[in-house]
Design brief:
By secondary structure, the protein is an alpha+beta fold. Helix content is 17%, strand content 32%. It has two helices and eleven strands; from the N terminus they run ββααβββββββββ. The strands form three sheets. Strands 5, 6, 7, 9, 10 and 11 form a six-stranded antiparallel sheet that branches. α1 packs across α2. It starts with 20 loop residues before the first strand and ends with a strand.
Length: 234
């Protein structure tokens, strides 16, 4: 059976106010259709409007968090950080109408190189007299030596606090441990402490381990681990 040839229909001449129309190409031939909202303003349903409003708030908030942590993220592969954090902030905002860090507890800053793939020991956080202390148990294999180039490691705790919804609404405080060598036989505890903010604002505490190659930071991201280990505040 022969295929019927489609009849050619030339494009119709554009209307006088062509900027208010769009050319639609259909099986029946091309035609000009007035753009949606050109006569009356297009309305979003409540769900879409709420999502649109949330996006305009949570995306800049996630970027502020990323920017404030930037100095601690050298040589790390943070993946789709802004998209991932925006998603968690959006869930909070849609539920409460406010921003906090509650759903970021346990968040890995390096999705492909989580803290547990490098740091194999235990830690816990204590809170006393408005101060957070991270207790880290150290032993011979507490941190994996992934190649012969790395010579030592150290820990760092970072406290991010404030309102991510405001420009310049965030601050960071941090403390660094001494440098430890691989293969140390004695078991010891590393303690790192930071004061909580005086005002009742959202905060999150992050633990980071970094490896050195001689006296320089290791190049590959697998020699780092960073994770949100506690959240709180408002």
């Amino acid at each position: 059976m022969k295929m019927r040839k489609r009849r050619y229909r030339p494009e119709p001449a554009p209307p006088a106010d062509a900027e208010s129309y769009i050319l639609v190409k259909s099986k029946e031939g091309p035609y000009w259709r007035r753009k949606r909202g050109s006569l009356t303003k297009a309305k979003l349903n409540k769900g879409y409007q709420k999502s649109a409003n949330a996006t305009s708030i949570v995306s800049p908030a996630a970027k502020r968090i990323r920017d404030k942590l930037d100095e601690f993220l050298i040589n790390l592969q943070t993946g789709r950080f802004i998209a991932n954090v925006s998603g968690k902030l959006r869930k909070i905002f849609n539920k409460t109408g406010e921003l906090d860090f509650s759903l970021l507890n346990g968040y890995e800053l390096q999705p492909y190189f989580p803290l547990s793939s490098l740091f194999t020991s235990r830690y816990h956080v204590s809170e006393k007299n408005n101060e957070l202390t991270v207790h880290i148990l150290l032993h011979k294999n507490a941190v994996k030596r992934l190649n012969s180039l790395v010579t030592g490691y150290y820990f760092e705790v970072v406290l991010l606090s404030g309102d991510p919804g405001k420009p310049k609404g965030l601050r960071t405080d941090s403390e660094i441990s001494p440098l430890y060598g691989f293969g140390e036989k004695r078991e010891t505890e590393c303690r790192l402490s930071l004061a909580l903010p005086a005002k009742k604002v959202p905060w999150m505490l992050l633990l980071k381990v970094s490896c050195l190659e001689d006296n320089a930071l290791a190049h590959h991201p697998r020699h780092y681990g960073m994770k949100v280990i506690k959240v709180g505040g408002k």
